[in-house]
Design goal:
Length: 374
């Protein structure tokens, strides 16, 4: 472990000591979950045709993956291993205006179907994204009985306050649960103002959810290196986030694992799924996600794990492999290539998460199974 690693861990430890969150509440499902260090990769060559996701193959991929991950004889038994009647499950999605690299509706609907088969009440399944306008890319595909939740219509200053109350189906941010990180501020923020130094968790996660599913994308990100489960469970779940990557500042490592280590999040994350049906290997997360730029390719793969850190490490390797095919440097040494604002992509947040005990980040210790369906 390098001196830089030790400094990051000490920073993360200090930050973790400065949050308000329940000290107890851990269950067998808490990160890294029922199957530490295990990742199932399911491949189907027909999952994406001309970068359009195909429902039938995707259903088979999810069903095969959940059975293999849980070691059950059927996908129904697999879902019942992780979720039970009485659970309130929030699915954290990752939508965008490019369908090739947005949460796949067919994948999301199959996850919802699995929860129903596990006995979760329809009214206890909630599809969540921080901003309403992003959810708008998915709601047309959802049955009318599916509950959706968001914290704010979109990003603006009022959204950053912990007591923000938006539209009808928002609960705002929870003043009781937060990370206090006064060392990271925008130029206009003050270290003496808790509204500036704290990032509060969305109340839908603190007061409603009993379990959380991360439905992430296989994408490059100009600040965090990659957008996978850990990024999905941090940036999309707390307010006052821009201060961590704005005005040339980029501290995704250690901020991402610090946020995810909040017990109110860590103890509820039960399953992580990375949608690698299509992969964005550079120019992420949005500005260059249009396939016309040449950074999107169909990998026809879904990763499933209860250990989201292990899944993220596998996803990181997959993105690097795509970058290598296109003659791009690896994420850890990429720097600014003209498609981002930062000289350092903080992909090391995955390693730091592993060092913090949130899951397995070491390749030699990850138990990866690959299933090829077609």
């Amino acid at each position: 472990m390098t001196r830089r690693d030790l400094l990051k861990l000490s920073t993360a430890a200090a930050a973790a000591a400065a949050f308000r969150s329940p000290a107890s509440g851990a269950t067998p499902y808490s990160m890294p979950g029922l199957f530490p260090a295990r990742v199932v990769a399911v491949k189907h060559s027909g999952a994406s045709v001309n970068m359009v996701q195909q429902t039938g193959p995707i259903q088979l991929m999810v069903r095969s993956g959940i059975a293999a991950l849980t070691g059950q004889s059927s996908y129904i038994a697999g879902w019942r291993k992780l979720f039970q009647p009485g659970d309130v499950v929030v699915i954290k999605v990752n939508p965008s205006w490019y369908p090739q690299t947005s949460t796949c509706p067919a994948l999301l609907l199959e996850v919802i179907n699995g929860l129903l088969l596990a006995g979760v009440s329809p009214k206890s399944i909630i599809v969540y994204e921080r901003y309403q306008y992003l959810l708008g890319f998915l709601t047309p595909f959802l049955p009318p009985w599916v509950t959706t939740a968001f914290v704010a219509p979109g990003y603006y200053v009022d959204d950053q306050t912990p007591l923000f109350q938006g539209l009808t189906n928002t609960l705002g941010y929870d003043p009781q649960y937060y990370v206090n990180l006064p060392q990271y501020l925008e130029p206009w923020q003050s270290a003496s103002n808790p509204a500036d130094t704290c990032s509060h968790v969305a109340k839908i996660l603190t007061t409603v959810a009993t379990k959380i599913i991360s439905l992430a994308q296989l994408k490059d990100h100009q600040a965090s290196g990659v957008t996978l489960n850990l990024k999905n469970l941090s940036a999309g779940c707390v307010n006052n986030w821009n201060r961590f990557h704005d005005n040339g500042i980029n501290v995704m490592d250690p901020v991402i694992p610090t946020v995810v280590s909040l017990p109110v999040l860590r103890n509820k994350v039960t399953l992580g799924i990375i949608d690698g049906i299509n992969c964005l290997c550079d120019g992420g997360p949005l500005n260059y996600a249009d396939p016309a730029y040449g950074f999107v390719s169909s990998l026809n793969t879904i990763l499933m794990a209860t250990d989201v850190v292990a899944a993220d490490r596998v996803g990181w390797v997959m993105i690097d492999a795509e970058r290598a095919k296109k003659g791009l440097p690896l994420e850890a040494v990429a720097g600014n290539d003209g498609y981002d604002l930062y000289t350092d992509r903080e992909v090391g947040h995955i390693t730091t998460a592993g060092q913090m005990g949130l899951g397995e980040c070491r390749d030699a210790y990850i138990n990866q199974e690959t299933i090829t369906l077609a």
